[in-house]
Specification:
Strand content: under 5%
Oligomer: single chain
Number of strands: 2
Amino acid sequence: MSTIPTNTLLRQCLSASHAAAEQWRNFWFAPADPFTLGMIRVLTGSMLVYNLLVWGLDLSAFFASDGLQPLTTMLQFHQNDLMFSFLYYVSDEWLFVVHCSCVIVAIMFCLGLATRMTSVLAFLITISYSQRVPIANFGLDQILGMLCLYLAIGPSGAALSVDQLIRDRWRKSKGLSIQIRKHASARTALRLIQIHMCVIYFWAGFAKLKGDTWWTGEAMWQVMANQEYQTLDLTWMAWMPWLPYLIAHITVAWEVFFCVLVWNQRWRPVMLTVGTGMHLGIGAFLGMWTFGLIMTYGYFAFGDPEWWRNRLSLSRHIDNVHGNAGLVPITDVGANVSSEHTSNEWDELARELESQVPESVDALGGVPQSPADPMN
């Protein structure tokens, strides 16, 4: 009789382990609509183009061999460090040509043209520029590099891109339905952005707790009274000292608890709204618009892709152009298929998908067998 409770406990442990493993898999790899990833790519790509154009205003001073940080000095100082920058190997004569090529790649990345290649190149460009001149490496460059890395991992060109338009036009020419493809890699990329944002805010808040001025609230006043960063005169707060103190305490509490509360559906809008206001305030009052904006771009990783797709009316537009049966959501090839589906269920699903193919395909000689998508 003693074996019955043992077997029951063993089954419960196995069941709990299986459920935990399934939740872990779904958290990281459940196929997701890449629409918000495309939004982040457009915003991040536009910021990368702007950043490169600013670098180009004084290209020789930043990146020439005898510039602000001479090349020989950089190579000697970092000879034992693992640092990468292709600008280490670009001569002064080719500097302008290479820079223009980087701007073109950044524009292609922003537009979503050849995104699988340009996303990787965009990441390499970002870190190469920032690590060639570390004295000019600020928060904008670091967050830009982080977003470009995860956009290169995920299918950032699967939505809101020239690649998507080419793919949809090709499918239309073949008489096939326009598909909203869900990708397991899109979920992974979005999760990486989410977790990275949580880590950034937690350690930013934790570091502030190590300073006495953040406990007293004086740190926020010191920032607002600093004329170096002052865009608007905020010294009137000297007659209302409780206000900068309150802002300082709210900032620390928000940063520390962001990594917890942002996962709660009720608190998520509050945390993201406060964060947006904080970063827009940094841009408006301290003049750091690029940093303030790039931080908010990561917030779209917490958004619902279907909600954004419907709000922008893109799916509704495609329906109107290609017919009501035009959109067929499917999962990424890399997603794991549950073994619970029987062969009859898959046959039924195949017949349902086949029934949604426009009648114009018949005029082309029938449905082609396994058509090769040129953008895959």
